[in-house]
Amino acid sequence: MKKRIWLFLAMICLAGGLLSSLKQTAQIAAYGVTPQTLIDVMNQYPAKVPFSTKQVYWIEPLGDSHTIAFVKTEKAHLLLVLQQTDSTYRIVRLIRQAPQPNDWFEGRLLEIEQKRYLAVYGENRSQNLNRLTFDPYKATYDGKQERNVPLRDIKRTLDVRKKDSFHTIQALPEAFPRSLFFDIHAVDAQGNEKLRRLSNTLD
After folding, report:
1. pLDDT tens over the chain, length 203 residues
2. CA 126 to chain CA mean position, Å
């Protein structure tokens, strides 16, 4: 009788372990893109750049069928946008930059699936940066000269205190003009400007 009870308990534990394993596999497969997926897709890209899974800093979904990821190697910083078609992926955007020595950030406007996003990413290794402020502008032309008009009601900030690295992906309202760009400032705890970058526009 005791042997039957122990056998029954052992079968319950085994079943529980299998269910737990299946649940974890489903969660990973549900998202789809892993660091190894990025490597496999990059190996099929004409201008491939070798990197390891440990050099993939972050991966985020972008719309219904796209993914954005950041890779940092000794020779380059890579911002990749992947598109999923059925069960396959391909690189549709690759932005390559030289490595930065200390604190740095970049701001990119992207248009994916007829939607627009602001992607900001960087590092704060010195811990001197406190926050980023995003000042939006739209470029206008009156027939004589181009002017940059501030959009004061949609100013944004990002807290980067005590963060060695950071990133944010923000969906932008459709009402924003296509000539929109962001003047991005990184300031310290006293409000002193440390870094400044201009994003691109989608025009």
Report:
1. 444 444 443 443 433 433 333 222 222 333 579 999 999 999 999 888 899 999 999 999 998 899 999 999 999 999 999 999 888 899 999 999 999 878 999 999 999 988 999 999 999 999 999 999 999 999 888 778 888 888 877 778 999 999 999 999 999 988 888 889 999 999 999 999 999 999 998 87
2. 22
